Amino acid sequence: MSAPATTQAPKSGRVLPPPVMGQEVVLIAVIAALWILLTIFTPAFLSAGSIQQLLWRLAPIGIMAVGMTMIIVTAGIDISVAAILMVCSVVMAKLIAEGGWGFWTAVPVAILIGGLLGSFNGVLIAYGRVPAMIITFGTANIFQYIGLKVFNSQTVNGLPASRDVLGPGAGGRTFGVSHAFMIMLVLVVLAGFYLRHFPGGRHFYAIGGNSGAAALAGVNVRRRIFITYVITGLLVGLAASVTIAGGTSTLDQNVGKGQELATIAAVVIGGTSVLGGRGSVLGAVLGALLVQTVSTGVTQLGWPSQLSNLFVGIFIIIAVGADLIREHRRRSHA
Amino acid sequence: MSARIAPTTKPPTPSTSAEAGDGQQGFGSRLVQTLLTNRVALLVILLVVVVALLMGLDQAGYLSAAYSPDYMSAALINLVPLAMLALAEMVVIISGGGGIDLSLGSIVSLVGMGFGFMYGIWGWPLALSIVLAVVAGALLGAVNGVLIARFGFPPLIATLATYYGYWSLALVSNNQKPISSPPIQDLYGLSKAVEIPLIGQQLPLLPKGIVIFLLPTVVIVGLLLAKMTYGRRLYAIGTNDVAGAWSGVDVVRTRAMSYVISGAIAGLVAVVNVSQFASARPDAGTSGNGMALPAITIAVLGGVAVTGGAGRTSGVVLATLLVVWLNAGILLAFSGNTGSQVELLALGLILVGSALLNTFTARKYSGAR
User: Which of A110, A250, B54, B350 is deepest in the core (most CB within 10 A)?
Assistant: First the structure.
């Protein structure tokens, strides 16, 4: 409906929305405007070091946002990602610092643990048929307990420096681009392509739009929902690896705090509807980029860093408000 | 729809199995049904079991201190803010449309700082400061209400945004420093435990906050929901806002008002929090897991359906009591950090369990009451 009649109408009757939709265009414009303003007002912003840091910091949130987008597209939500991130990080840190494991052998373990915890959520939500928000509030507490148990009431010390490959430093870059950022980019392209062009991806949208109708159309609704939580868990494990790689030699119990809401904020700023059925991975990453730009900008302008959260809140309102207005217009034209 | 195919004037029977004849239905299954559909009955029994269990552990010598009435009464100081915020969450969840308020903890932080300035630094009268704190909470809640009810923001998103915004403002307001000037420190008197007059000699000391803050809130929210027009409208739009609108309810206003009410309660909780810790802290409602998540947990445990339109004051208060006394026992049963960790585990298991129970009840008996 909203797609303008382009040169040739698809004969097959399949209509995909354009790859870059209204919300992404708005976000790209806003981010571009912010970057220009920040370049004018703070000379440090557009330096290579600053941008490289920004892209590296984008990676963990962006990676988690890929999974969270899938969940929210199916009209679910996962509040427990911060707790999963904490469990994966602490297990990984313990294996490396105290078990003498190499960084790369610990990464698959972190990813597997993430997938395991995610499947725990998935089973309860898909097969126990309980509201996702409530369940993940609950499992977040349980996962936090597990994480704190592994921490055993003290920080993990003595992480060796052999984890630079995913870190923010010079060892973590090829041709000046952070490896973590590249991994995120690959995931975004893969997930975006899957969601747009594969039946399985379209099923997520169908479930979010109307799960009853999707089931009648032959979608295995429960299994598809289950899978979104497992994928998110796996991705959180990967994000934990990036977090560990970028941290200091000490890991404390605050790891992951607030990341669940930051991830959700990125996804909704990106135009994904929490009511399900609409949204894109590209938007989510742009949302995460906007949030990172704001927090970097606030710091570099010399404002109190706590102020950046105020702007995050304001951008959520603006982004979702713009989306609501467009949706309203679309409906009144139809 | 069911009204069309069932033209009977008889009141609806609780379930289809009851129609099969009361004689065939055993006492056991009727008991199970009562417990599952009547959340208050279930909570009372759970409460008795938990307290009995903990007292038993105490007798057997497993606890590090006596789980006595005195201890239980002292633990009630934690009941005050928790129960009030759970009631606030209940009101917005009942309003339906995915109602939830993530910003409550941030409102507590921000209003607490405002109260700290008014009473602790500018030296305004206490009563005026408390009233203004409640008004400020209501205004912050009104922002949520307008965004959600008037402009159609999903509640999760709107309150996520204000959670970030208010949190940030609270931190910036006094440069991240708490306010604990002498008037604020003296406020501890508002929360300390006192003897109940007339009958108090034999009874344990009761935290004052129960009477000053919690009781009025419970009574007002209870009456508002159960006895007043506003409450009936709220349940109506929470169950089905289209039907509510067609029967003449101003959906926008009623729903927005629920966020104003929850904000006002959070404003009062800010005062409770400042007095309890004798300090206005900028991260009072957001440190750790924050205050909103436990409040939502307790509301759900108390039988509030996240789909809206169902939930009772008594259930929420009982659920808070259960959590507070259970936590108090856990702190005695596990030493040091383990205690607070087990609290997390218990809260998580309770929440998952009660959500599964709610779903099961809804499917088997079409909903808890």
Answer: A110
